[in-house]
Each structure stands twice: as structure tokens, then as C-alpha cells.
């Protein structure tokens, strides 16, 4: 709801707290009044039901898995305006954002990329195409973000061996209409206007509307960016037991047309920090539209039925000179890979589930069964084979314009059609009041066809997989639980809906995980902590044949084992500390590459873009009535940019701060400083690690929020 809420102030009961809490409540004419506590900060939310770790309505304390919830209020209080910024403050989640992956690629538990860390919006995924996901991106419309670490194929299908990120949007709610307006201005010519409105129109109809517009001049030459997000939903309560919700979300993005800074002698030259070597008429554009109709029927307290029909589209366009190399002999930069790519993606589907609570031999049982069907159409256009070369002075140059090699034009190159269905089920049995066993199974089937629009050729492929998980939770007390889990998973070799001709004879990669952990709330719920230990193995990677390096086999193996911990503690009244961290060992166990026609083993090496240490801390201090200070630290360990582990990207630490003042009940001000110590760091790399996509330097923003 807001970027500068002061939820932890003991002396204020803020109207937007009620807005946030009622948004997640079940609409009912007899809703109890919302009680606003002195401190609305949720900590780790171990006792708040989440929908991502299980469909059974369990809390993180009751779930045999690592589940974390970031409330929208906490996210905006910290000033995290993008989903990527928000989730990388969670335990063990790091980012590898680049224009080619939509700026959203994440890593978790030793596995990186869109094919291993799944992203959902209200439980629905737009399937990854050519390694790209572009929605959701703005946190203004988020009620909360739920994070499930570790394999989640049994919940959501292929592509989630590292984890799942689920952005749950704000929902219509019963109650008086409430509005919020945010206006922001800052360095780098940054401007933001956001509006949120929701409430009941009458006794049967309620709505929610949120929109946010952002623009900035960026931190490199010609670094302009802008985006617009619109989220709207209308809910009709047909009866006390049955409701319908129609939602529409629209995202339009024009990110910085910045592809990175070339290294000089293997290091960053700060004099090139603000240079943008892309062409003058470069273009990067994403447009996503999501329409969903959800129905929920709860005839009694033991039975609930949910269904969601969805229609999703995504159009993407890149036109850039993408690869830059510094030439020390001349002090020039060579630009290559003049490429233009367009994606046209359409997905239509339906998902339904039935949850039943019952007694079996006197034991409490909860069962969920359901199905998911969808159809995905994808068209890829480009100017392949990519070419084009130009050389410019490293400091003073005319950026020039985009061009393709002679005789090469941008046109549709291939088209795919994917029809999928899945059947899934989960079950929980409470053997005692303290001990429960939880299991799940899912069967996925996909018929895939790809047509080459240039050569007139094509192929068909069928994928079928069954995944399952089993776990147990033992609660010594309502505030202390230990758990164990075993899960299986599947991952695509690239992206399922853009399976290439070279991958047509292979199946999906498979994986398995064992995990144990403990969760506790203590000190009269003023503190919470979690700990998890896990091991994941992913098999059937594509690897070169040791006898004949020209032949590719599906025999490779990758592993990861690690430890994760998180804690949230109200140290003193008005003073709260949140910390988390992870250490892991990620390795290729069996993986060969062909280098110059020679077979090279990468066994024992660390996979690319995977940091083996990461940590976060956030301190919130309500030091005076109506005043609050916050400071956060984000640490990301070193990563490798190549499978040979010869190019290492340094670790980095970034500190952000915020000072907020609740002027009146209807107005608040907040001053944020990002990257307080102005550190230079690489968020992502390209060109074999010789090109860094640099993160935001020090910048400041002043926001004003109005509630009416």
C-alpha cells in the first residue's frame, strides 16, 4: 500500500494497516472488526497461512519446507519498488538481472535462471520462453510475496528445483473505500506517481485498483527508463458461500537500454562507469497483460472449491548492439551482436482444486485434489544469424544506429504450440495434536510442436513426468516445530515452450532434495527464527560424450548442499532487527564441455551465476513518536562467469537507509538513500564475464504519501 508506512510506530494506528489486513480477509457481511495492534510488523509470519508452500491452507510453522512471507507493507516501507529488489532481501535469494532474461532472473539453493527458480503471480505462471520472464515487476500492487525454497515441481510443474516466488496482489475487500496516493522525486531525474483504492461499492460488490508510473534518467548516458503498471479487480459476492473475482493486470516496461560496461584489463575502469555503448536507436520494450476470472465456493467449513480461468499475453522487443570489448592497443571499444528479437506469447488455461477436511479413525485429515490445463502459443522473430561490428572511441563517440548485416532482415523464425495438463493432489494427516505427515503428487503431460518458418521443417515432442514429496512436522509446542522433507522435481533443459531442435531427443532434467529444519517463535512472539539444512541433486544435464566430444549425452549431474538461517527480533520496544544468511556448496558432479574440439571436464566446478554466500540485515527503529529510521545491508558473495571458473565476479555489499515522518494521519514523508556508500558492483555479467551490468550507484528519493 505504501512506500513509507510507519507500521512499527507504537503510538500510531495507521489506516492503511486496516486496508492491508482486510484485503486478505474473506469477504463476509459479518466480518469481525479489524484489530490493529501497536506494532503491525509481521516478523517472519510463521503463523500466517500462505498459499505457496501448500494448497492445504497451512502456516509456515505447519509446512515441512522453507517458506518465507514478505508483506507488501514491509516491502514498501523498505523502499523496494521492484519484485527483484524485494525478494533478494529474503533468505538465500540472489539476482542475475539482464535485459535478455527480462531483468528478473534469480538464483536459489545453488540453481540459477528462469528454468530453475519459478515466478508466479497469484499462483499463476506465464511459462518461460527463451529464458525470459517480464511480469510481475512492480511491488505497488503486491499484498505480499511468498517464497518457497527448494523443489516445488509437485506444486507447480517443471522449472522449480531452486524455489518459487509468488507475488500475491492486493484484493478487493469489504469496508469503507480507502485511497492512497504516493508522489516521489529523486536523483537521476527519478519520478514516481502511484495510486491505490479499494473498498465496498455495496453489500455484494467490492473492488481494488492500483497503478504506478515510474521514470528515470538512469545512471548511464542515455539511460532513460519508464514503466506503467495497472492492477484492477472486482469481486461479486453472489452469496455468503460463493464469490467471483474478475482481475486485469497490465504492465508496460521500457527499461534502460544498457547492456553493460566492458572491463579494462579484467577490472572495472571507473572512468567508463557512466558510458553506454548501445546504439542511439536501441529499443527494449515489454508488454504483459493478465486477465483472470476466479471463483470460490465454500459450502461449509470443511469443503472449499476454487477455480481460475486465465488468459495471458506477453510481447517483447529487443534491438541492441549487445557485446562490448575494450581494445587496449587503441583505447577503443568494439561492438558486436547487432540483434533484434521479438516475442509474441499467448497462454490460456484453467486451474481448479477441491479441498476437504475430514476425520479418519479419529484423526484430522485434509486433502486437496485438482487439475491445471493450458495452451501456449509462441512466435519468435529475429534477424538471426546475428552479426554487425563497429568500433568507437571509449570516451567520445557517436553511438550510431542499429543495422543488420547485408541481406539479413527481422522476420518470424519459428513458432511453437504447447498443450499441457496436470493432475495434482496433497494430503495431511494429523497423527496427534503435535505430529503430522504431509505428502503430495503431481503428474504433468505436455504435447509440444515446433515449426521452423524459414526452412519449413518442424518436430513434435511429448513430455510426461510424475513428481512427489513427503514430509513430517513435529511441534513440541505451538511455537516450536521441527520438520523433514524429501521431494522430487523436474527442470527444462532450456525452456519447455522453446525447446530447440538440438534438444528434441532429450527429456526434462530430474532432481531430488532432502531437507530438515526447525522453526520457533519465542519471547512472547517478539522473536522468530528458522534454520534449514538441505541437499539437492539434479540429474540428466546435457554433457559431452567422453569418447566422442561431438556427441551430446543427457548424463550430467549438478548438486548443492547448504545451510540457511533467518531471525526477526524486537530487541526493544520500537527497535526490530531482521537478519538472514546462507552458505552452500554448489558443484558440477558430472559435466563435460567441448573446448576447441577438446573434451574438458568441469566436475568439481561451481555453476555460473551462483554465489555460495549471501546475507541480509534490516534494522527498524522508531526513535521518536511519528519518526522511524531504517537501514538495510545486502551482501552477495562472489560468483563465476564461466564453467571453467577462471573468471570470478567479486562479492559486494550495499547499504540502504530510510527516514520516515508520519506528519498527520493523512500524510507521511520519507527520505531514502540507496547504496549509501556508492559501491560499484556487478548485478550481472555478459561476454564471458568481461562485461558487467552495473547496479545502481548512490541515489536519493523523497516520497510523500496521502491517505483519504
From TrEMBL:
It is a multi-pass membrane protein. It is found in: Cell outer membrane. Residues 234-676 form the TonB-dependent receptor-like beta-barrel domain. Its main location: membrane. Residues 60-164 form the TonB-dependent receptor plug domain. InterPro entries: Beta-barrel_TonB, Beta-barrel_TonB_sf, Plug_dom, Plug_dom_sf, TonB-dep_rcpt-like, TonB_rcpt_CS, TonB_sidphr_rcpt. A motif (TonB C-terminal box) lies at residues 691-708. SUPFAM superfamilies: Porins. It comes from the Bacteria. Keywords: Cell outer membrane, Ion transport, Iron, Iron transport, Membrane, Receptor, Signal, TonB box, Transmembrane, Transmembrane beta strand, Transport. Residues 1-20 form the signal peptide. Belongs to the TonB-dependent receptor family. This is Metal-pseudopaline receptor CntO. It comes from Cupriavidus pampae. The lineage of its organism: Bacteria, Pseudomonadati, Pseudomonadota, Betaproteobacteria, Burkholderiales.
